[in-house]
């Protein structure tokens, strides 16, 4: 289990990010079309615009760890709260393109993984984004070829895929390797374990061909490997306190947050309402998420992939800030990141306002909120 070190190691005086940090920017998984614009939102008759805005542009990835955005889009939760302000959607394949879209104003609010959120915040010296809410926990597994790997100790000497150098899963796997007492050069991936950086889209084919022996990957890639005969050797959630760790956050551009707080609050209310509906109606929510995946990418997930993948993801309003803090520390430990100053990466004011109004528990920023 990874130890959560003192927050002071991260909130002390910020140091410039090393060259490798941009590689942290790939989010949890890469499915759906790149920057696909969906303007089909239905606006209720008689509704009023929020903050005088014609639209709010929402970005997300086409994968199950972004279930809040998928279901909120499919079931109309965002549009309901935004009234006559149209909810427009874009889907992305990778963190860098979503951060670029946020910086350019092509989107206003986005669902994204922890590594690109850290990257976007630190590269701009804390000036371009805020994390304003949580969305999902879990959904990451080490899946292996059971003929070649029968126990955790058998991972040594094998070829294991991660999505990209420095991405969220890559950092987690490097940290786990170090905890075993094994040595791997983070940049090359060579050492006691061969870490093979492989796009999630082609990881199942690489597994079938035998070019990798397993993979530390998010859903639904993990369940795709299981459908190909792989075995779950380790669920990353078992390495964390309470089996919870952030896999998806909600971010907003600081400019949009400052100029349009009512619109941001409306999106957060829709997110909280969506999460409540998902947790109360898991089967219907799973079907809605898959329907939106099909609309975004042209292909739905088969049941043998969808069902186990959905079960491993926890939908939550809590951004699990202390675990983002720890994930950043793991990147520092791996030599992929110099100690950043993450103070101010969170602003949970509006989320906690929404949660209080809904009679739900408020959430904590682990000391990394706006001062």
Describe the structure.
This is Aliphatic sulfonate ABC transporter substrate-binding protein. Keywords: Cell inner membrane, Cell membrane, Membrane, Signal, Transport. It is found in: Cell inner membrane; Periplasm. Helix 6 (168-179) links the parallel strand 7 (159-162) and strand 8 (194-197). It contains 14 helices and twelve strands. Mean pLDDT is 88; it is low at 1-41. The longest helix has 20 residues, at 261-280. The chain has 371 residues and is of the alpha/beta class.
TL;DR?
By secondary structure, this protein is an alpha/beta fold. The chain has helices at 8-11, 67-74, 77-82, 95-104, 114-123, 168-179, 203-209, 221-227, 254-259, 261-280, 282-297, 303-311, 321-333, 349-357; strands at 36-38, 55-61, 86-92, 109-112, 129-138, 140-144, 159-162, 194-197, 214-218, 231-235, 246-253, 313-315.
Global structural class = alpha/beta
Would you identify the regions where 5 or more consecutive residues have pLDDT less than 50? 1-41
Helicity level, as a percent range?
Answer: 25-40%
Mean of the pLDDT scores?
88
Widest beta sheet: strand line-up:
1-3-2-4-11-5-12
Main sheet characteristics: 7 strands, mixed
The arrangement of helices and strands along the chain is: HEEHHEHEHEEEHEHEHEEHHHHEHH
Share of β-strand residues: 15-25%
Strand tally, please?
12
Report the total helices. 14
Q: How far is the first residue's CA from the last residue's CA?
A: 31 Å
**So what's the overall shape?**
globular
Compute the gyration radius: what is it? 20 Å
């Amino acid at each position: 289990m990874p130890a959560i070190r003192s927050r002071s190691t991260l909130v002390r005086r910020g140091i410039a990010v090393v060259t490798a940090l941009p590689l942290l920017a790939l989010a949890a998984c890469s499915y759906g079309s790149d920057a696909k614009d969906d303007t089909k939102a239905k606006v209720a008759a008689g509704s009023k615009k929020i903050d005088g805005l014609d639209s709010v542009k929402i970005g997300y990835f086409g994968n199950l760890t972004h279930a809040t955005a998928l279901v909120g889009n499919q079931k109309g939760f965002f549009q309901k709260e935004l009234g006559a302000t149209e909810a427009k959607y874009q889907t992305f394949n990778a963190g860098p393109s979503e951060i670029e879209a946020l910086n350019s104003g092509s989107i206003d609010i986005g669902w994204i993984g922890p590594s690109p959120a850290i990257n976007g915040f630190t590269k701009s010296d804390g000036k371009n984004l805020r994390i304003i809410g949580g969305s999902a926990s879990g959904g990451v597994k080490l899946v292996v070829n059971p003929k070649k790997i029968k126990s955790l100790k058998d991972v040594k000497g094998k070829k294991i895929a991660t999505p990209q150098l420095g991405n969220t899963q890559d950092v987690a796997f490097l940290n786990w390797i170090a905890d075993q007492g094994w040595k791997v050069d983070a940049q090359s991936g060579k050492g006691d374990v061969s870490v093979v950086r492989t796009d999630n889209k082609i990881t199942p084919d690489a597994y079938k061909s035998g070019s990798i022996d397993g993979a530390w990957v998010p859903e639904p890639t993990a369940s795709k490997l299981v459908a190909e005969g792989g075995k779950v050797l380790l669920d990353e959630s078992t390495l964390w306190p309470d089996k919870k760790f952030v896999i998806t956050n909600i971010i907003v551009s600081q400019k949009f947050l400052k100029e349009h707080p009512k619109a941001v609050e409306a999106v957060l209310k829709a997110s909280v309402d969506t999460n409540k509906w998902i947790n109360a109606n898991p089967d219907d929510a799973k079907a809605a998420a898959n329907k939106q995946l099909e609309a975004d990418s042209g292909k739905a997930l088969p049941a043998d992939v969808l069902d186990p993948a959905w079960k491993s993801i926890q939908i939550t309003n809590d951004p699990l800030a202390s675990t983002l803090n720890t994930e950043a520390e793991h990147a520092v430990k791996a030599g992929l990141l110099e100690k950043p100053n993450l103070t101010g990466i969170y602003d949970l004011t509006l989320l906690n306002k929404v949660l209080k109004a809904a009679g739900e528990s408020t959430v904590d920023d682990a000391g990394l909120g706006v001062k």
